[in-house]
Amino acid sequence: MTTVTTRTVEYPADNLTMIGYLALPAGAERRPAVLIGPEGMGLSDVERRRAEALAELGYVALAFDLHGGRYLEDPEEMLARCMPLLADPDRMRGIGHAALDVLRTEPRTHPDRIAAVGYGTGGAVALELGRDGVDLRAIGTVNALTTGRPAEAARIRCPVWAGVGSEDPIMPPAQREAFTAEMQAAGVDWRLTVYGGALHAFHHPPVDHAAPPGVGYHPRHAQRAWRDIVALLAECLPVTD
Q1: Is 47 exposed, middle or buried (0-12, 13-18, 19+ CB in 10 A)?
Q2: Which contiguous run of DSSP H or E holds residue 228?
Q3: Other CB atoms within 10 Å distance of the CB of residue 175
Q4: Fewer CB within 10 A of the terminal residue: the chain, N end or C end?
């Protein structure tokens, strides 16, 4: 196993002081980098472990913050913050750009070789960066089939992969259809993987607090979704280039 170095990074966004988690691979040379967005609850050890796993594969990885260092265990508090955020593309872009700036200025990052991966609200932020025309090598999302403002998807400059559970009540078939119609109309290189029998946030291990209805862990599909994301990065952002 390669040696990974980690540290927290503070930066301003959305009128808050965000606390991200940076994982660096062994060595001193510049490497491709991945921005990782968390579920609506906020940055947790789940995303920190994913950043470390990507660093093990040779990527610089930054798991970004949504709530100023807070993890919102109360579903009502989480929805009260995330629903207005999801309805405001400019706020999402601001959060994404602030984290992207941190990642780009990291000396180990190759600034022209960056991908964005996000889950739930963090995935919506990743998509908004694409709709804002950011030069990304790939966008990967899980249970984040959000649509954007008319015609802005045409500004996405990279392949988009999206994963969703077939039984996700928050991202139902109508939402899937709206998302894929937007991607197709914009000429995006897109893929959608539907994981049979999975609920919303199927990738996230069980939590020891209340969760919104329709959320449930699916261990097999969680592993498959992670492998699909790693494959997307290997295709679009190989560490050996």
Answers
A1: buried
A2: helix 219-236
A3: 16
A4: N
